[in-house]
Amino acid sequence: MTNTTAHNSAATAWGLLVLRVVVGGIFFAHGAQKIFEYTLAGTTQSFAGMGVPLPEVAAPFVAFLELIGGAMLVLGLFTRLAGVLLAIDMVVALVLVHLPAGFWVGEGGYEFVALLGASALAIAFTGAGRFSVDRGVLRGRAPAWLA
């Protein structure tokens, strides 16, 4: 008799860690870029040029959501909440900006935001996994929908 359940559990934990770190790292980098490279003023101007409603509110909200939410995914901290918020961020970006450009990212399309959004949503559905702050520190102390 083999212990496939233990193996699958370990493989799942490592898989979730890899997914969280990569996806969270990408979100973190994009948030940092909006804040520190483009600056909030530049990001606001860019959002206005793309037709994003209320760019003065949307730009800083999105920038800090991506920065902080990305860090939360990497750490596995309040993972389900961060995943849902980042998925919503990508749906809005897809609909408002990328959908008219078609599928391919090289042409401004939605392929990359769709992948990031689906990945964030998958993490929200599954939770952070074994190697996370949610599991190590918040276990049983936070509602399941949050962590």
Helix content: over 70%
Summing up helix and strand content along with how strands pair, one would put the structural category as mainly alpha
How many strands?
A: 0
Q: State the low-pLDDT regions, or none.
A: none
What is the straight-line distance between the termini? 34 Å
Rg from C-alpha positions?
Answer: 17 Å
Q: Calculate the mean pLDDT score and round it.
A: 93
Gross morphology: globular
Described by strand count, sense and barrel closure, the largest sheet is: none
Tally the helices: what do you get?
6
Question: What is the ordering of alpha helices and beta strands?
Answer: HHHHHH
Strand content: under 5%
Describe the 3D structure:
This protein is mostly helical.
Keywords:
single chain, 147 residues, mainly alpha, 6 helices, globular
Concise account of the structure shown:
With 147 residues, the chain is an all-alpha fold. It has helices at residues 4-37, 39-49, 55-75, 79-98, 111-126, 133-136. The N and C termini lie far apart (34 Å).
Topology:
Blueprint: H1 4-37, H2 39-49, H3 55-75, H4 79-98, H5 111-126, H6 133-136
Helix pairs in contact: 1-2, 1-3, 1-5, 2-3, 3-4, 4-5
